[in-house]
Design goal:
Blueprint lengths: L12 E5 L4 H12 L3 E6 L2 H13 L4 E5 L5 H15 L4 E4 L15 H29 L2 E6 L12 H21 L4 E8 L5 H9 L3 H8 L12 H8 L10 E4 L7
Parallel strand pairs: 1-2, 1-4, 2-3, 4-5, 5-6, 6-7
């Protein structure tokens, strides 16, 4: 008989960035149902409070921290506030990301580069650093970075985003190698096309794009945020305790079939 208790997150404390919607929200709710208390971060506290209310309805604790994670000072404050409230951070899910406009390589400017890189890569790197210091002191932990198949196969007119997600994949490998000695595991989830605010905005901006994208996916559909949570729980739980430095691709078969 399989030991399903190894998938439990009972007694854990998880921080989820970009937790107000999409994959972040679905992950936070799934982790609460698996037994974890939650620290929720994004820029708008009022959106997070709705998710926090759902988590509390599951009988778990939830802390809302409003922050702009593209600013290094905010990443330090988030880690310190979370530690003061819960005493520990067992799991960090780096889900926050942005790609505000579509622009070709020749049209991309420094402002777009900075907006994407500051959140998608710099914020992820330095929040992970701040939280990893806490995890090291407490004897271990788990970090899950959310990348994208764009980190392998860039979309036209979304090159800066693709570069940032390729950077997330390499940041995962760097962190996994250096933090393994401290019992901290680091892995990446790389989603394909998933209905999020970011992707759905691109579908609205480009009529016909959604059907075109479905044609690239062997399963013939766009994923839902809930399709990601099983992999998230696996990566966060003892079920994957000998897995670190890996990228798990959840794309309906698009990249490799």
């Amino acid at each position: 008989m399989p030991n399903l208790k190894q998938f439990s997150l009972e007694g854990k404390v998880t921080m989820v960035t970009g937790a107000s919607r999409g994959i972040g929200r679905a992950t936070a709710l799934a982790f609460a149902r698996a037994g974890s208390d939650l620290i929720l971060t994004s820029r708008k506290a009022e959106d997070l409070e709705k998710v926090a209310a759902d988590i509390r309805n599951e009988g778990r604790r939830a802390l809302v921290i409003s922050a702009h994670l593209g600013r290094t000072e905010d990443t330090k404050n988030v880690a310190a506030t979370a530690r003061a409230a819960f005493g520990r951070i067992d799991i960090l899910v780096n889900n926050a990301g942005t790609s505000p406009i579509f622009a070709s390589f020749l049209e991309s400017d420094e402002r777009l580069w900075d907006a994407i890189m500051n959140l998608n890569l710099k914020g992820l790197f330095f929040l992970s650093q701040a939280v990893a210091k806490i995890m090291k002191e407490q004897g271990g932990g788990c970090i899950i970075n959310v990348a994208s198949i764009d980190g392998y196969l860039p979309e036209t007119d979304n090159g800066v985003y693709a570069v940032s997600k390729a950077g997330v994949i390499m940041a995962t490998k760097v962190m996994a190698r250096e933090l393994a000695a401290f019992n901290i595991r680091v892995n990446t989830l790389a989603p394909g096309f998933v209905h999020t605010k970011l992707l759905d905005a691109s579908f609205q901006a480009r009529p016909g794009r959604e059907e075109e994208c479905k044609g690239f996916v062997p399963q013939g559909r766009i994923g839902e945020p809930e399709d990601m949570v099983g992999t998230m729980i696996y990566l966060a739980s003892d079920a994957s305790k000998f897995v670190t430095g890996h990228v798990v691709i959840a794309d309906g078969g698009m990249l490799y079939i």
